[in-house]
Every structure is written in structure tokens, then in C-alpha cells.
Amino acid sequence: MATTAAARPLLDPDALETIDLADPGVHAEHDLTAVWHRLRTEQPVYRHPENGDAPGFWVLSRHADVSAVYRDSARFTSERGNVLDTLLTGGDSAAGRMLAVTDGAPHRDVRTVLLKAFTPRALAPVIDSVRRSTQSLLQDALGRGDCDFAADVAANIPIAAICDLLGVPASDRGHILGLTSAALGSDHGMPTEADTWSAKNEILLYFAELARDRREKPLDDVVSLLVSDDFGDRQLHRDEVVFNCYSLLLGGDETTRLSMIGAVQALIEHPGQWAALRSGAVSIESATEEVLRWTTPALHSGRTATEDLLLEGEFIEEGDVVTVWTASANRDETVFERPEVFDLGRTGNRHLSFAYGAHFCLGAYLARAEIGAVLEGVRAMARSMEFAGPSQRVYSNFLSGLSRLPISVTLDPGYRPSAS
Ligand code: HEM
């Protein structure tokens, strides 16, 4: 049986000017390690050429520059969009109405209220439920011997946690899962614009209805928090409520899924690390951080320069699109010792997978708990895991990882299933 999931050919860094980083196929079908290395060492502030109607944009690849942009929301705003797709097509329609694409005081006000739902204490019941459901999903899937880890396990964990948070009824969750996949990437090759827009609209309509219900009858969930009057001197507008529900759903589902799937892929490809995890030589906490660095599910973030400025000798004009590539920063050799090595015991792991600064991921604690629950579960249940068929990558310039990962598993003879 194969010991690596389909390896992707390395892209030649000498062909830099011909590589379109906005093209989902470039990321899905190629290994960009050498390209990122060249950019970090030779062109850390690189002007990506325009392409047809799409304008050019800046590409930042070093850890220090990526962190600096994340820290500086005043000079690098998210208010016109925070991913390439929206920035290259005229801006985000939710700008100023959704946390990730709002800056300044309005961002702080909404974030302060939402944070109430994301403290370790508030999340405790959600995380208990994540642990129970992860255990039971793993038991069912691994117990069969063969499974698609992506569809049978990972697809169900983050969406259930977010639906718990938002108060989405169990009967609607399958529908919501299908829509989130369609809205962000594509599990089945290149997404069409019509597919993604229609899925996004359906999600927005769904949450508009849920918000109406919660206004009439508040419950103990995030939608009720968003329709409450906790926002200083005002209530959130209906659009702000709906866009923030949307952002929690899309921000928290696929990223976390891709990390879990990537964790299992990496454990199969690195038997030494799998042995270290099983023996307890590495902690679940450090393993989780390395999984986040290694998988880097969100490849980049985007910003717009609010003034003319000089960066590493390059002149950036007000209004220019500036992209920061976590995919590269997380492999920066000036920050990480042996960055191309998957090392679950890595210490001082300053990965930027959850970004940095004002927009630092709101769901980081939850995502870490979910990935940790998967690592604990496979460690307790599996003796060995192997690839059992072709995997499938997501097609996206923003998300990275596998949407399909068939594996076969030999259970640990000492493992005793719990009744669930
Ligand atoms: C491995 C999983 C995850 C990754 C890699 C991830 C990554 C990120 C990144 C890179 C940002 C910053 C975007 C920017 O600055 O433009 C972000 C922000 C955000 N994330 Fe996550 N995320 C994950 C899980 C979650 C979860 C589970 C939730 C919620 C349930 C969530 C909700 C959010 C929200 C609401 C923001 C916007 C925060 C703000 O603008 O203040 N994320 N995330």
C-alpha cells in the first residue's frame, strides 16, 4: 500500500513570473516549497503580475513581514476584503458588516461581545460534546477497518461544534455541511462561481431565518447573543448578524476539518512521529501545534494598503492589495529549525496558522480542542494506519488540504470501545 498520499510535482521557482498564485489549481496540483523558499530569500516583497482583468498584488512570504502586516490594521486594512478572491474582484460584499472584514472600533465592539461565547469556560460544554462525538465517530469509522477519514470522521466534528455554538438544530446540519463545502472550495475539482455564490446565498438566507426565530425567543447560543442589545449603544443590523453567523460557519468548519485530515495524512507519512505520539513521548498540546503549522489550512490572508509606504525597498501604493502567505511564513527557516520536518515535539512553535494581532482567530481555542480530540482518539484506538486509495485535494487559493482520505486501520488490541 502507498506510504504517501499522491505527491505533487515541485513547481520550478525559476518560472516564478508564470505562476498564478490566485489559481486554485496551482495550489491543489503543485508543491510550492521551492517557490516560497526563493521568494523568502530573494523577493520577500514580490509584485505578482496582473492577469487578464485581475489586478496585480503584493506577495509577502517572510514570517517577520507577515506578522508585521497582521499587527498593523491601520496601514493594512481588512475592510475591502481579506482573501484574494474578493480583493481581486472589487471587494467583499460583507465589508464593515462581518468581523473579519471590519477594522477599528466597530470590529472591537463586535469582537468583545462574541468573545463571551469563546472563553474556555463558555466553550466547556461544546468541547465536552466534541470529545464524545469524536470518540464515537472514530469508534464507528476505525472499527470498520476501512474508512474515508475526511467524510466519515473529520466532516462531522467542526460543523457539529459550530452548530452547537450557533444553536442550529440537528436536523439541519447535513444540509449546512453540504453548503459550506460548496461555498468555499470544491471537493470535486474546480468550483464554478455560480456554485459558490448560490451556496453562500443559501447559507445567508438560512441564518436570516434563524436570527428571526431567536429575536422572538432567545436561547443560550451565539445567534441569540448577536441579536441581543449587548453592543454598547446599538443593536447589530440584520445583515451584521447574518454575515457573522456565516463567517463563524465558514471560518471554523473547513479549516479545522482540513487540519484533522492533514494530521492523519502526516502521521501515516511519518511513522516515527506516529510512534512518538502513541508512546506518549510527545504531548497532545505540542502535537496539535505542529499539526497546525504543518497543515497550514488557510494559505494566505489579504489586506489593502491605506497609505503609500516602503516595504523592504518596494514602493507600495495606497489601495494596493497586499497578501501575506502563512503557507510560506510557517516554513520560514529563520524562525523554525528544520522547517521541512514534521516534528510533533517541536518547542516554541510560533506558527501563524491562526494569524496574529487584532484579527487573531476567534475560534483558535475551539479548533485546538477539536484537533486534540482527534489526536487523542487515534492514539487510543489505532495501532497502525495506512492509505487505502486515492486521496483528493481541495481546489482553492485560500484553503489547503485533502477532502478525501481513504485509510485502513488496525485497531490497538488493548483498546476497549466505550458504549456510546
Ligand atoms: C484550524 C482551524 C482554523 C484556522 C487555521 C483558522 C484561521 C484563521 C485565520 C488565519 C484568521 C484571520 C483572518 C485574517 O486576519 O484575515 C481567522 C479569523 C477568524 N476565525 Fe479562524 N481558523 C480556524 C478555526 C476557527 C473556528 C473553529 C472558528 C469559530 C468557530 C473560527 C472563527 C474565526 C473568526 C470569527 C475570525 C475573525 C476574527 C476577527 O476578525 O476578529 N476559526 N481564523
Automatic annotation (TrEMBL):
InterPro entries: Cyt_P450, Cyt_P450_B, Cyt_P450_sf
Superkingdom of source: Bacteria
Chain ranges passing through the membrane: none
Family according to the record: Belongs to the cytochrome P450 family.
Protein name: Cytochrome P450
Phylogenetic classification of the source organism: Bacteria, Bacillati, Actinomycetota, Actinomycetes, Kitasatosporales
